[in-house]
Amino acid sequence: QKEVEQNSGPLSVPEGAIASLNCTYSDRGSQSFFWYRQYSGKSPELIMSIYSNGDKEDGRFTAQLNKASQYVSLLIRDSQPSDSATYLCAVNFYGNQFYFGTGTSLTVIP
Amino acid sequence: SAVISQKPSRDICQRGTSLTIQCQVDSQVTMMFWYRQQPGQSLTLIATANQGSEATYESGFVIDKFPISRPNLTFSTLTVSNMSPEDSSIYLCSVGDRGGTEAFFGQGTRLTVV
Predict the structure, then answer these.
(1) pLDDT tens digits, one per residue of A3-50
(2) Shortest CA gap B99–chain A (Å)
(3) Could you tell me if residue B71 is left (phi over 0), alpha (psi between -120 and 50 degrees) or otherwise beta?
(4) How many CB atoms lie within 10 A of CB B107?
(5) pLDDT at A28 (0 to 100)
(6) What is the pLDDT of residue B97?
(7) What is the pLDDT averaged over residues A79-107?
(8) Considering CB atoms only, which of A1, A43, A95 is closest to B107?
(9) With contacts defined as CB-CB under 8 Å, which chain B residues touch A43?
(10) A97 in contact with B at a CB cutoff of 8 Å?
(11) Alpha carbon B104 to chain centroid distance?
């Protein structure tokens, strides 16, 4: 298995704060990087993808990628209670194979 | 996007028996993937199912335990054989789009082995 590592948490932030989620990966040949959100008992759903170094913003979400450091992060601004979920970092190797991190559990406290 | 139908959604099985999980996609896809998600854990790739050839298994997973069929470009099955309580998990079918820009997931099969 390719290695994709995340802090398991749990991470708790107050409503309206910024939540910061981090992920590292082992294979320098990784092509694409993703953040999935998984609510309890549900399948993962894609919230962000990033392919090149730098930042990518989509609404309240910002993904950051640093290939030299093999590091990808997700920032959630103005966190809402509905953001409470497990966030999975995923890395794509040479096509459609996705390898997932262990997930970070986020709780946004009203 | 792809719509994936997976069944059964859940099952409770006796140890030593086998369960076959079905995955149907609404469009033709080259590769389908089977994942396991154990309680409180992330997704672990079991194998990649290619149409017309044997599945490719990840380290720690073997064909005798998890035989996979891929008879056409829209359908695959995963069998969990000779089950033990350690096989209790959620099993997820997944497909990727052509550009590898997103993985789509079925609803998952929650398996409990007693």
Answers:
(1) 899 987 899 999 999 999 999 998 887 778 999 999 988 888 889 999
(2) 8
(3) alpha
(4) 17
(5) 80
(6) 66
(7) 88
(8) A43
(9) 92, 105-108
(10) yes
(11) 13
Residues near B62 by beta carbon (within 8 Å), at least 6 away in sequence:
none
**What beta strand segments (E) does chain B contain?**
4-7, 10-13, 19-25, 31-37, 43-50, 56-57, 68-72, 75-80, 89-96, 103-105, 109-113
CB distance A105 to A58 below 8 Å: no
Residues in B touching A56 (Cβ below 8 Å)? none
- Which tokens in the block code for residue A12? 């708790």
Length, in residues, of chain B: 114
Q: Which helix (H) or strand (E) holds A65?
A: strand A61-66
B25 touches chain A (CB under 8 A): no
3-state secondary structure of A82: helix
Nearest to B48 among A31, A34, A97 (CB): A97
Percent of chain A whose pLDDT exceeds 70: 95
Cβ atoms within 10 Å of A55's Cβ, excluding its own: 11
pLDDT tens, residue by residue, B74-111:
999 999 999 999 999 999 999 876 566 677 888 999 99
Annotate B68-89 with b (16+ C-beta within 10 A) or e (fewer). Answer: bebeeebbbbbebbebeeebbb
